[in-house]
């Protein structure tokens, strides 16, 4: 550790190492306030962004707007021939958490300097920063996508031409402790050149 790092900074990193996704059925009120939401989006904007392209934008669905999203999710499941049970579950995916953040990628496939994979890396960084900020503010969340991100009607509700609907981060307060997680050893991914 850098000797100039404060004990506060160490505590922050320790907290980051405890970040986990929480299933939507365990996300309850309260969700973040508007001020907290803006902080969360500021964190997203700190993702490493080659060329400062900001290859993403966000659309928040909270309160009564979730019912409109539930209608969209359900109609998509019906179109895909899902069972009544699956269709009901799709409604729940929109209604359970206090708030959802749609992640909309804006990838410039023909950018002369920044290839698409670098822009996607930035989108991933934004998603991670959102999840970390949610966690650091005492909330919990989970990113979900599924087949419906490719449903033309749902895509049309969120995206302009050329944009990609990446999924939704559900956000709320965790109603339970996280379950046991599979260990991911550092040595499996770390080498020195
Ligand atoms: C773009 C993206 C889409 C995802 N879509 C789904 C999904 O549709 N269903 C799912 O179970 N997990 C999905 N995940 C994974 C979960 O959000 C979560 O990361 C995973 O369950 C591991 O949990 P952890 O974040 O606690 O490590 C997605 C993750 C990302 C980044």
UniProtKB/TrEMBL annotation:
Cofactor binding summary note: Binds 1 FMN per subunit.
EC number annotated for this UniProt entry: 1.-.-.-
Main EC class the enzyme belongs to: oxidoreductase
Biological source species: Noviherbaspirillum pedocola
Cofactor(s) listed: FMN
Residues covered by the Nitroreductase domain: 29-172
Superkingdom to which the source organism belongs: Bacteria
Molecular function terms from GO: oxidoreductase activity
Keyword terms of this UniProt record: Flavoprotein, FMN, NAD, NADP, Oxidoreductase
Record protein name field: Putative NAD(P)H nitroreductase
InterPro entries tied to this protein: NAD(P)H_nitroreductase, Nitroreductase, Nitroreductase-like, YdjA-like
Family: Belongs to the nitroreductase family.
